[in-house]
Each structure stands twice: as C-alpha cells, then as structure tokens.
Amino acid sequence: MTARIFVPMNADSSLIRKSAIEIIALLRERQITPHDCLDALEARIAAVDRPINALPILCFERARAAADALMKKPADRRGLLAGLPVVIKDLAQVAGVRTTFGSPIFADHVPERSDPVVERLEREGGIVYAKSNVPEFGAGANTFNEVFGRTRNPWNTTRSAAGSSGGAAAALATGSAWLAHGSDLGGSLRHPASFCSVVGLRPSPGRVAGHPGYPLDQQLLVEGPMARSVEDAALFLDALAAEDLRDPVSLPTPSQSFLAGARSGWRPLRVAFSADLGITPVDPEIAAICAKAALRFADAGVSVDEAHPDYSQAHDTFNVLRARGYAISKLELLRNKRALLKPEIVWNIEQGLALTMADEERAERQRAALYQRTLTFFEKYDLLCTPTTIVAPFPIEQRYVERCNGVVFDNYIQWFSIAYAFSLVNCPALSLPCGFTREKLPVGLQIVARPRDEARLLAGAKLLEDLLGLARKTPIEPRVMHI
C-alpha cells in the first residue's frame, strides 16, 4: 500500500519540531488529534523526503482509519503513545502494507498479519503511517536496494545514512518522524543514529519481542527504538518492551518504566572509554571527538578511565555466528532465488554453509568467554564508551567501508566490529550524538551498560546529553550537495 503524497491545507508545521513526549502530552490533553499529527507528517514528507528517500512506503489511508478507531476510545484507553504516529522499518511486516525487506524477491509482498513488534505498538496507541528504507534483508551498513534505491544522509546528500535502519534515522533527522522502529544485529540501530545525529538504542536480547524465525532462540538480532533524544527513546522503549511467548527469549516488562529510569538522576561513578576496543582502526578525528565527549562525564564528577575488556576474539566469533544465522534463515532463498540476491547476501549464506562443527564449537566457546570478561569488566565500571562508528559518513556510492586509517578490511562487515562486539555479549548499547567533524558531519558516541541494564544506560546517556547540549540540533532541512 504505497500512497501518493499530497500536502494537507491546514497542516501545522510547528508540530514537527516538538519532541515525541511533547506531542503525546498534547494528544492526551486533546489540544491536538492524531489527524493533526498525520497531516503535519504528510506535509513534511512532501517537503523533505524526495532528496533523502527515507520513507518509500506510505500508508496514510490506513493510518487515518486507525486514528478514527483510536479516537472512539476513552482518552485513558489510548495506550502509552496515545495516537502518536510511528515509522516501521521495512524488515517488519505490517498487515495490509507493502513489506519488501528491501529485496526484489518480495517487491510486491503484502502480509496479512503484522509482526509482534507492530502489534505491540498499535496496542499502545502507535499509528503506523510509513515504512523506512533498508538494505536488502538488512545486510550491510549502507541503505540501498534494487526496489527503492539509496537513502541519502540529510546532513550531506552525497553521503551514506548507514544501515540497516538508515531510512529510520534519516526520517528522524529531517522531521518526517517523531519515533522510528529499528533493528540491530551488528550495529544497524547504532550506525545510522551516529551518521544522522539521532539516538539509536540496541536493547538487551529479549527486551523487545521479535519476529519468530530461525534459529528460534537467536539473540544477535534485536528490535529497538530510534528517536531524536534520550527521553523520547526511553518512552519508545516503554511502548516496545513486553513479553511475548512467540519469542522464547522475550523478557517480562520491568516494574519501573524506562522513561522513569532515564529521568532518575542516577549518575555513574566510573566510566571507561576506548577508542578502538583493541580490535579496529579508527579515524583519528572520530576518536578525538568521541574522547572529548566521553571526558565530559568528568564535569559531573564521574571518574573516566581508558579501559576495555579483551575483545580480541570478536571478529572470528561474530563472523561464524552471523554466517550460521544466514545459512539457517536464508538457505531456501539461495536455492530458489540466487540470481535476485545481492552478492553480500550470497557470501553470508555460503560462508555459513561452509562451517564445520569445530567452527561452531569454537565460536560458542569464545562467545561465552567474551561474555564472562564483559561481566567482570562491569564490576568495576558502570558504563563503557566508544565511537559508534570508526569513520564519518562515507560517500553514498561506496557499498561499504573498505579501509580505515591505513588498514584494509578482510570483508564487508569488519569495519563495524566496534558495534558488533557488544552484540556478542548481550549488552544494551546506545548511540548518542556527540559532535561534528570539520566537514560538519555527525559523530555518535556509543554508550554501553551491563546486560539488561537499560535503565542506567538511559540515565547515563541523558546526563551526557544534557552536558553536550546537542539534543535540539534536529530536525534539519536536508543539505542537498552535489559532487
């Protein structure tokens, strides 16, 4: 269901610059309606999305019908989001809405039923109005596909918005969304957040119930929130988080809300910073910007040390586990639709098919050791900070980062090891806007907490966000550049 864009005559453009929390308050007070929000968004998309290509699938007719149904309910039964429109990543199915997974194989796919995460958001009063662009099946940290083309970075349209939640991040940065759903296996929430100067949170596995797939108990891939501020991300996590038996690793909803956790005033005693985790090259300018941002914790009386756990086995471990997952989940596509798959997908599946039991045993043993070393590290430190990405937004034509600071990478995923190291150890990790390069390109600081400690992660991120003062830098007008 892809709708044409028209500009509502009475759209209130001022709503776009408000936070999600402010919009929800206005909805609860009945100062605005969900229709006012949808009108503002449709007008904004018409004004800014053409050069960015963040939201290629629109479903405003469905959204307005959902708004009508929601408005018939008493105000106290409209859910946590109270009618706030939300964007869903085009890797999640929405009933009656075109869902392509960024693949020509599913270019015309319209599911009859929504995924659990979408059902959850709609129960909480979220109104789906758009699907965000993704790379094919989410593979590769650059958002392009043969169905909808490239998503460009709104800070400089000659640059990548990263991926795989690139469309979600770009929509947030340009004001085409207040909240955007994302997912993350090796950094897919965090990379685009860094490149677009928004907040992306990878929760602990099970915090947000995911789509049941193969393997059934997989923990590398998670669903999570993206927003323009830490508080908005915390609120969105409250709406997303719930136990669902369809996902066997899903967790019960905690007794305290994540928004309350973000606002709790908790402060870390000791924070660690590492520019490279000892496993990756980093652009010196990125490293310097992130180090300066992490040291701002000292302004709040926090001790900041240079330290990190031993993650030397992360590359081998992640490569094996990722490849195994692709082989299990995508083998039928390789057998039947190989010619329609991009080379990176084929490579992932074939790497998985070539694995031996010895490879899998080694990876599982190494992952267990990585996890234990991480837990030991967090006995001393409350939070760990690193750059979210090792480079600034790269040229849109590049499929991936091939080299950094003189080091040539072995494969197309190695450049984001600073993110996937934390996927391996079940830690919640958040990308926070922390500055800009000399070319005025965004940089994100990755903040990590011990497993299942999202509340303190959000509180620590909120503290640093206030110290840095960058929360109101978005939304922006797209900066259309030409080579």
CATH architecture: Alpha-Beta Complex
- Computed structural class: alpha+beta
- Per DSSP, the total helix count is 14
Determine the CATH topology: Amidase signature (AS) enzymes
Dominant shape: globular
What is the topology, as strand order, of the major beta sheet? 8-10-9-16-17-13-11-12
**Main sheet overview:** 8 strands, mixed
Radius of gyration from the alpha-carbon trace, in angstroms: 21 Å
Strand content: 5-15%
First and last CA, distance = 34 Å
CATH H level, superfamily name:
Amidase signature (AS) domain
Averaging pLDDT over every residue, what do you get? 96
At the first level of CATH, what is the class? Alpha Beta
Which blocks of ≥5 consecutive residues have pLDDT under 50? none
Q: How many extended strands?
A: 17
Q: In total, how many domains does the architecture comprise? A: 1
Fraction of residues in helix: 25-40%
Notes on the structure:
- The protein is of the alpha+beta class and 483 residues long.
- The chain has one domain (13-468): Amidase signature (AS) domain (Amidase signature (AS) enzymes, Alpha-Beta Complex), CATH 3.90.1300.10.
- It has helices spanning 20-28, 34-48, 60-71, 116-123, 166-174, 190-196, 230-240, 258-262, 284-294, 314-337, 343-353, 357-377, 417-424, 454-468, and strands at residues 57-58, 85-89, 127-132, 144-145, 149-150, 152-153, 156-160, 179-184, 199-202, 222-227, 270-273, 303-306, 383-387, 403-404, 407-408, 429-436, 442-448.
- The strands form 5 sheets. The protein has an 8-stranded mixed sheet with strand order 8-10-9-16-17-13-11-12, with helices on both faces. Strands 1-3-2 form a 3-stranded mixed sheet.
- Strand 6 and strand 7 form a beta hairpin.
- The chain is globular, with a radius of gyration of 21 Å.
- The two termini are 34 Å apart.
